[in-house]
Amino acid sequence: MASKYIIGSVAASFAVAYICDCSVSDGKLFGGTTTKTVSEEWWEETDKRANAWPRTAGPPVALNPISRQNFIFKDHSRS
């Protein structure tokens, strides 16, 4: 019997938290705007920097979750 009150109160608290989150962040309840530094050219420059990092990873691997064997594919075109 107490479980229905617990489940209901947990669901209600999640609903209240969601409404508060949406009203504060999306509705700008306390005012404010997005900063001027976050512009289209800022996003482009950030993407350029993120994509410019060298990728240091191993060879491609095909995962077989059924037999739990991993097969490494070797690229013979590079040799």
Helices, strands, pairings?
Blueprint: H1 2-26, H2 40-52, E1 61-64, E2 69-72
Antiparallel strand pairs: 1-2
Structure characterization notes:
- The chain is mainly alpha-helical and 79 residues long.
- The protein is built from two helices and two strands, in the order H-H-E-E.
- The protein has helices at residues 2-26, 40-52, and strands spanning 61-64, 69-72.
- Strands 1-2 form a two-stranded antiparallel sheet.
- A hairpin with a 4-residue loop joins strand 1 (61-64) and strand 2.
- The longest helix is centred in the first third of the chain and has 25 residues, at 2-26.
- It is flat, with a radius of gyration of 25 Å.
- The mean pLDDT is 77.
- InterPro entries: DUF1138.
- This is ATOZI1.
- Pfam families: DUF1138.
